[in-house]
Structures are given as structure tokens and as C-alpha cells.
Amino acid sequence: MTSQPPKAPPLYPKTHLLAASGIAALLSLALLVFPSSEVEAKRTTLSLELETPAEQLKQDQSTEELVQAANDATPSPFAQIDQQDTPETTAKAEEPKAPNHREVIVAKGDTLSTLFEKVGLPASSVHEILASDKQAKQFSQLKHGQKLEFEMGPDGQLNNLHSKVSDLETITLTKNAKGYTFKRVTAQPTLKSAYVHGVITSSLSASGQRAGLPHSMTMQMAKIFGYDIDFAQDIHPGDQFEVIYEQKVINGKTVSTGNILSARFINRGKTYTAVRYTNKQGVSNYYTAEGNSMRKAFIRTPVDFARISSRFSSGRKHPILNKIRAHKGVDYAAPRGTPIKATGDGKVLLAGRQGGYGNTVIIQHGNTYRTLYGHMQGFAKGIKTGGTVKQGQVIGYIGTTGLSTGPHLHYEFQVNGVHVDPLGQKLPMADPIAKSERTRFLQQSQPLMARMNQEKATLLASSKR
Questions:
Q1: pLDDT tens per residue across span 222-231
Q2: Which residue, 188, 186, 104, is CA-closest to 142?
Q3: At what angle do helices 204-211 and 215-224 cross, to 10 degrees?
Q4: Any idea what DSSP says for residue 13?
Q5: What pLDDT, in 10s, does the model give residues 268-304?
Q6: Hey, what long-range contacts does 158-163 have (CB within 8 A, 24 or more apart)?
Q7: Which residue, 206, 207, 201, 150, is CA-closest to 180?
Q8: pLDDT digit string (tens) for 371-405?
Q9: What is the DSSP letter of 335?
């Protein structure tokens, strides 16, 4: 049996080979996770070569275009607002002004001369322009916030000056061969009627304002009902008023108010009505809904919304003389300068100083009645001894002349030379609607009363919902 040569022993023990295999595997894994600096450098260089800055910018622009396209397809709800707020959009929307057109807004302290200088016109030209037409001087009566529009000629001279004085009125100066021509344009408003209902909680003025009644209408209402209601002492919380009045409207905007067409006032449970009526002769007055005259020979009080500080009395202690002395009139306390009205038509017997009354006006009304107004600060323009006055005409202003402790009016009322209490005196009535016009009057009065009833019912129904 032939013997085989013995096997050569292994170069490395088996355990060594297994250990070497494990180490090699760990090194390979490490190289994959942590590349060498040379490999990392090559990778970075490759990245820069494939994505240059120019190409990156182009890629960013492409991305923005895609985003913009998506936004255009689904617009933001604020897109229109954002677009309107940008200066570029505003500039495009505005019509470019002609190079010869200038506009200025009157600021505090401005005169026509300073405004001319602002638009490049010599201040010396103001006199020439204003002297060219008698009415042109109205351009010098400037109001704060008023806009003036200038149109210049090729020679730099003024061709046209235009201004809107109010919602109803514009004035213009236009150059011609002789100088300038003045023109006034007054818009004709549309007349509409409005209804207002209010409840007295404090003063009539405040309640009217809260109800939305313009102040001028509140004053007009007080004048209409002034024959029956003393607004200085008769007003009571809970009293109500209703008014239908004219509104003057241009292009849907109320620019002013007109007359009260009808009114109703509930004072301490008693109802007073008034309807404006113009007779066939063109004379307008107020009457009750039944046709009786609202106008009486005298109005109740000579001062609107004043406070009664002292009443008619046969035994009052005088605040200055400090002794018992009859107070033959009624004192109305009000701020200095408050207007005083004649309570009736008449002839002025005195407009001057009279003892403790200070500045005084005495008016004779026919043969029976006489009124006196004392402690005035001064007299109204045109009021003089021997002159005549109309009911409601301002004759003077509240003051403290004579024996007076504070600004007020001392008012006296005489009947056939005897002093009576003005607050308790029954006033004489004026004539009612003429019989020949009664039917025509009722054709106006009844629809107005019906409208107030309907409007009030609607308000009450809506407030209960």
C-alpha cells in the first residue's frame, strides 16, 4: 500500500483567518460611511461642475414661475386689495393732469395772493383779476379746505379759475379780451321728504340729535310750537316729537334741508300738530291739522332753551338790593351773547339804558300789549327807538347790564298797562285757514298726518321684534 505524503500544515491558523475576514468587513463598511478626503473632494468638485451659480439662478426662476402660475390659477382673496395698494397700480389708474392745470387746497392762513404764488402766478395779478368783475371778489372769501383749480395759457398767464363753493354752488373766472368774466352755477337739488321720531330724555337739542334730526330742524320745530310750548320749562322726559321735513338731494347725497312739512309734539300727554301750508297768494304759515293757526300774537318765550332763574312774584327778595320787592317779570338765564327775540310784532318805544334794567328794549304791540327786555349786553343791528320789529326778530343779546348778578334776560309783559305773568297769560289767537282754502288745505294735511301715523307704527313694530 503506497503511502501518501502528509498534507502541508496551513499557513495561518483557522482562527486567524476568521479574525482577518471580520476586520476586512469592518474596514469596507467604514470606507462606505466615511469616505476619504480625496473622495470627498472629488465629490464636491463634481457637484460644483454640474450646478453652476447661473444654472442655480435659472432653476430658482423656473421654480418661481411655477409658483406664480399656480397662484394665478387660484387667486388669493386679497389679490385685488393688494393690487390696489401698490403705487404702480395707483399711478396707472390716475389720469395725467394737463401741464397747464394746477390745483391748490386752501390751508390755514392762506390768502388768494399766497395761492397765486403757489401755482407760479405773481401776487400782483390778484388785484387786476379781482377788479375785472364786481363779483370776482367772491374768490377772496376763502374757506379752509376749499379747492381752487387754475388753468394756465401757453404764456403762463391765468386763463381760468374755478372753485366749488358748496355742494350746490361753483364759481368761475374766465379770461376774455377785456379781462375776466365771472360766472356762478347753482345746481338744482331734488326735493325729498324725511321722517324722524324722537323721545325727550334730557334736552330737546340732545334728543333731536340722537334721533337724527338736523339741528336747524330742531330749532325750526321749537319755533313752530313756541306759541303753545315753553321749551324753557314745559319740556318733560318722555315727551315725543315727529317731524316730516324736506331734504335737498344731489346725486343721491343730501346737501341741505328745507322746511318742516308737518310735525307733531306730545307734551305731558297733550298732542300738538303743525302743517305747513302756502295759500293762493303765496304766503306760507303753519296751522294745526284741523286748520287753526299756529301763529299767535305772541310767542311763549323770548330766548330759546334758556333756564328760568326767577319767576313772576309780588314779594321777592331782590338779590342785590336785599329787600322785598315785586318781581314783575320772568328771568331767563343763558350764556352771555345768547340771542333775544321779540315775542310779537310792534313798535320800539325804547332801545337804550333805563335805570336798573341796564340796556333795555320796550316794544308796544298795538294798543293793548307791551313787552320789556332788560339787562341786555347790546342791541341787534337795526334796533333803535322808533323802529318796528317782527315777531321772532332778534333784538339783542343776553348780558349783565344794570342791577344783575349774572347773565340773564328780564322779561316783562303788560296788558293795558298792568304787569301780568308772561307764563300764565293766555295769548291771543291768529286767524285760521280761510274757508275758501280749507278743502285744499285738508288735501295736504290729511296725507301728512296719515304718513306720520304709519311711520310711527312701523317704528314701534320693529322695536318689538
A1: 989 988 888 8
A2: 104
A3: 130
A4: -
A5: 999 999 999 999 999 899 999 999 988 888 988 899 8
A6: 158/121, 158/125, 158/129, 159/100, 161/129, 163/139
A7: 150
A8: 999 999 999 999 999 999 999 999 999 999 998 88
A9: -
